[in-house]
Design a protein that fits this description.
This protein is an all-alpha fold. The chain has four helices and no strands.
Length: 71
């Protein structure tokens, strides 16, 4: 990853882990899955997001993890 993509992945990881807005957390999870970056911090944030109170966040986090495992 270049510096811009790495920065984006870091911000998305923070968003999926702690943004107040569930739609932002879900979108961040989707974006992380599409980036396809295999990184422990990303995987951990997505794994934790599978236990999010919001169903859409959980669904997007699970999908993102499946994309990372499959890539």
């Amino acid at each position: 990853l270049g510096p811009d993509a790495s920065s984006a992945a870091s911000q998305l990881t923070r968003s999926v882990a702690g943004d107040r807005d569930a739609s932002v957390r879900a979108a961040a999870a989707t974006a992380l899955g599409r980036l396809g970056v295999k990184d422990d911090a990303i995987a951990l944030a997505l794994l934790r997001a599978t236990k999010d109170p919001d169903a859409e966040v959980r669904r997007q986090a699970a999908l993102a993890l499946s994309l990372l495992v499959g890539s």
